[in-house]
Amino acid sequence: MKKLLTIKYTAGAVNASMLFLRIGIGLLMFHHGLEKITHFDTTAQHMPNLLGMGKTINTSLVIFSEFFCSLFLILGLFTRLACIPLIIEMSVALYKAENLDFFGQGQASSLFLIGFIVLILIGPGKISVDGLIGK
Known about the structure:
Number of helices: 7
Low-confidence stretches: none
Mean pLDDT: 87
Distance between the termini: 36 Å
Strand content: under 5%
Helix content: over 70%
């Protein structure tokens, strides 16, 4: 009980928390990317045409961010760089798809966005490939 009320923390607890956040949020986003890859044609039909690039290119960019950047996030490799496309994607999804409805339909996008911002600010922690190679 005493440990729950203290404001002290150990480096091991922070690193374990960052590992849990990184793997948890990465796996959840990876699943979204895997669904989009397996149903590429259906996904491309429903994808909005942003910046006039075409639905196929937009779908490919979303798949890159959700699948490959999430994979990097799970591994803890180039974590901060991998978070940038994910933050951009979640911001666009929140703005375009959910009409900035933070507390309603856009709640999942908001939670992902907050998680990715935390990861870009704090980093991957020592229990990651980045931590092992000393980045």
